[in-house]
Amino acid sequence: MKRIKCIDILRGLAIICMFLYHIQIWWINKNDISIINALYSTYAILGTTGFLFISGVSTMLSYKFRMQKIDKEYTKRVIKREYFFRALFILIIALLYNIFIAFTFGIITDIWKWFILLTIAFSLLLAWPLLKTSKLLRVYVAGIFFCVDQFLVVFLANFQGQLNLFGILFYILYNSLDQDPIMSFFSFFLIGTVIGDLIFETQQKEEFSQRKYYLTRRFLIPCLIIGGIMIFCGISLQIPEILKVEKAGFDATVDFPNFLSRGTLSWMIFAIGIELVLISVLYSIEVLEIFKIKRSYKSLY
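Structure (tokenized):
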């Protein structure tokens, strides 16, 4: 399978953004809450959300290319076994990391905490039955998760820390809100699988003219239009008070745009729009060879 450079680029940007977030405390005054919040939310657009989005793209591409190789020995059962082995392996690493963090900081409840590794592992597990469905259905499911999350977190937040059914549900689904809860972030992974599907279909066009036509009409233009609308809506959307939950655990009195408040409805819409525009532009540049780079620059990769 030929590597798709735009996916590597976006994955690299995501890692850089996550890195920058974790070191920003070195150079920003802790009292500058508005700056910390704004930077945290900005980094997360290309960081955690970007990484989950690209994970969805690469997961679908890997699944599609493997399905093409099916024969008597390399069966669907083997593909399924490989897929779940990968997901469970990441899950084990995530839990080991959580255990290390929990005992290092003396917070036992952090054994179950939605750091990005745990979110990726469960995204893989949840996505498997959906990989064989239509792109439109996956968009609908992503939208359902997206909407249900906004109401569910508001309801369950009232029971945080309580030893009852709703308190336990909050702990399982949202511990903790400053990380990457599965209900909030699975949508990014699922939308990534839709984009992966479109990229795979583009790759299947052997003639350049066909590939160019499919790329522009079925991928670039729709992504730019939808992404642009989502960016505009994210910036302009005012969140109703009932849906405002301080998901990141910061000072709720800080006044800055909603689309820079991580976890809010406008921020999530804005983030998805940014991902769609970025990947469509970068992939189009790569396929159309607007910049003809002859060397692979492996040292940079």
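Confidence is low (pLDDT under 50) at residues 241-254. The two ends are 17 Å apart (CA to CA).
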